[in-house]
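Cross-posted from the bioinformatics board.
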Amino acid sequence: MKILIIGGGGMVGQKLAHNLARTGKLNNQAIKEITLADAFAPPALSTPASFEISLVTADITNADIASSLISNKPDVIFHLAAVVSGEAEANFEKGYSVNLDGMRNILEAIRLTGNGYKPRLVFTSSVAVYGGPYPDVIDDDFQLQPRTSYGIQKAMSELLLNDYSRRGFVDGVGLRLPTICVRPGKPNKAASGLFSNILREPLVGIEAVLPASKSATNIFASPRSAVGFLLNAATLDTAPLGDRRSMMMPGVWGTVGDEIDALRRVAGDKIVALIKHEPDPAVEKMLSNWNFPNFSTDRAKALGFRCESTLDEIIQVHIDDELGGKIPGLNT
Amino acid sequence: MKILIIGGGGMVGQKLAHNLARTGKLNNQAIKEITLADAFAPPALSTPASFEISLVTADITNADIASSLISNKPDVIFHLAAVVSGEAEANFEKGYSVNLDGMRNILEAIRLTGNGYKPRLVFTSSVAVYGGPYPDVIDDDFQLQPRTSYGIQKAMSELLLNDYSRRGFVDGVGLRLPTICVRPGKPNKAASGLFSNILREPLVGIEAVLPASKSATNIFASPRSAVGFLLNAATLDTAPLGDRRSMMMPGVWGTVGDEIDALRRVAGDKIVALIKHEPDPAVEKMLSNWNFPNFSTDRAKALGFRCESTLDEIIQVHIDDELGGKIPGLNT
């Protein structure tokens, strides 16, 4: 079992690699090799592994480089690399280059390998493929009319994944990820970053700016759940997917106000007091495109995708996985 | 008013050009110049025009050539060029190259012109963007999950048109055309060609093979209606479209059996007897992806798009526009 993680230097890619290094198996098969590829040099794993882990700096917007990543015919490919939403909106060309051309280069590299090579390709799409106006509940048949360049690029990539899978070139699974929360580390350029910032920073005693209204909604899953989604997508039977290879992952729906209430229950008033409300019209405009209702996610649930049930649980996962079970902000 | 018709050598492009040459105006503005561009040398128009008509052979899969088409900054661009459904399925690379890269090259050429250049771009999408299973009626919010490469390429192009319009680079309108019927001339490689063949050939006294079941369904509009759609799309106020620039055009729904019944009413038993039923499993498989129910087309109707009401009318339009009002097959 050879595994390639494109975007292996990112937060989710690293957590996935740590998980695979720890278990040494995928789908009950021993892992022989993992390649972590990213546009920058991926960090080496601190988790010891019983197999080789290669770190590769690779620009997938270059077709030859994308092809070189596939040359050892990995059995499972996770394609997690993306220019995030805020950056794709700010830098039109870079967004299309990485998010669309990068995906196409990977699919073409696989197709042109031929000789029966048909890897499982797990692609991280996004809840951003949806655009309003919304019904009360978004079901699995809701149209994809994204209203951001990032969402457009992800929706186009999903269509490619469907066609390459239908034609038998690849065995694709696309995951429309909820907003991953609490996202550890520094804020990135994703417009959805604020939903993590207002939890992560106060938990360690740092003030966080809330640039949006408390009524802003989103759908959330923890990084731990994201890794679970990827592992399930890598191993599930794809026959039930038919020609529609992507689906919305389960998540916990809530408003910013719900997040703050959960933070109060888990960590108390002192932590919540570190959130400073400073509305930013540009952020609010972008979020208004995403003012998501709840999602049914029936297809994903039937295929065994699982996540947390409450925002409290999501915050607790962060405390357990990132903060050693403690809330440092209580001691500052 | 300068007009560019990409795909200007094709059947619909030629009819559109004839119409514009005859009226000399678009949106009450005098036409100064029309360029007909196609992958092959477009035929010169027989209709005299009061303005210059340029004929250009241009391969839009080449970004520089696509750019050269835009260099004189046409006010209205009709992008009708496509590799049709059957060919896009048979030739994977050609389909993506023309239908996706060609569209993107045109959009990029427009965007990179800059300096406030923002032409109206009328793009012919297709009913093939839909894929089953279908509800009883497909409304304007029905999801796009095409199950052919052609449909995927058209759906991706629609997403690009939305994004380039939203970002202010172009003023796009996408028309999901019904099956154009009766299509004059020789059969092309579109899988939908059979719906025209079984009408066109018998009307001139030639046998036609019906390779599909009489229960196969489709939605139809005449070439004359197609030209009307394009003219309306070139002149309508796009503000009501918001960020969703494409919509299903009205059409007449019917089965192959309905077509044959209409042919009998319009032309009689002798003509109908020229249809020979020889089922072809490959054709039936492709058609099963398109087993369309009816469409509501509310958005299009509200914006003034109109077509025939019955299959009888559609056949009569063919007799009037292509056969001089007579049915030659009755005299053979």
